[in-house]
Amino acid sequence: MIFDILTLFPGMFRGPFDESIIRRAREKQLIDISLHNIRDYALDRHQVTDDAPYGGGAGMVMKVEPLSACIQAVKTLRPASTVVMTSPQGRPLSHGVAQELSRRQGMIIICGRYEGVDERIRDLYVEDDISLGDFVLSGGEIAAMAIVDAVTRLIPGALGCDESAATDSFCDGLLEYPQYTRPPEFMGLSVPEILLSGNHELIRKWRRAQSLGKTARLRPDLLAKVALNDEDRRLLKGLEQEHGSAVR
């Protein structure tokens, strides 16, 4: 997977892309990340990339010429890559969206800034808009980092164990079950006995029940979208009898 990131602040990516899973994926050549400074494509010696909005109003708008030139230059190198804009008006980044993006050959991610990007950029080039949620960031750089991280985790070989990605929260539409490791007791809190039993079928059912229960309590909106089987309904009924309205 090839990520080309178009930004006014390439220095922001030092650190997040040089550590942990992203670093290892780059070393394994599973992904390639290239940063492109939009200022390098400005038309004047001061490298101006913003201007006042037509019609008045607060703030500045990213100019169309430098960004257009940057996109065209990168698109020439990566004709098969999808042009993505980080934008509050985009579709929310979810596990399903990350899965979809992971199947593409590459992405050219535009990091917006200021009050926004000249709309003609979207009209001419943008094929997908991605948002992190209903809030505003100072720029698209953090959103770009999140997209790269979420997609990279889904590339086979990026994680130490590929099964980890398959059991993460949201993979099956539910929140993940509680996790424990050594020691078996800490500050009066013990690991659930069932996890120490060695009975894999009981552990599987316990984990599924915990995942269903946590989702019902914390994110009932997610549970409403999940296709529950007969076992799921039995597990939820058992949790409801045990915990009452907290699960309902």
UniProtKB/TrEMBL annotation:
EC number(s) per entry: 2.1.1.228
Signal peptide interval: none
Compartments it resides in: Cytoplasm
A GO cellular-component term linked to this record: cytosol
Primary subcellular site in the record, as a coarse category: cytoplasm
Keyword check for tRNA processing: yes
Recorded family membership: Belongs to the RNA methyltransferase TrmD family.
Function in brief: Specifically methylates guanosine-37 in various tRNAs.
Protein's name in the database: tRNA (guanine-N(1)-)-methyltransferase
UniProt source species: Pelobacter propionicus (strain DSM 2379 / NBRC 103807 / OttBd1)
Upper classification of the organism: Bacteria, Pseudomonadati, Thermodesulfobacteriota, Desulfuromonadia, Desulfuromonadales
Designated gene of the protein: trmD
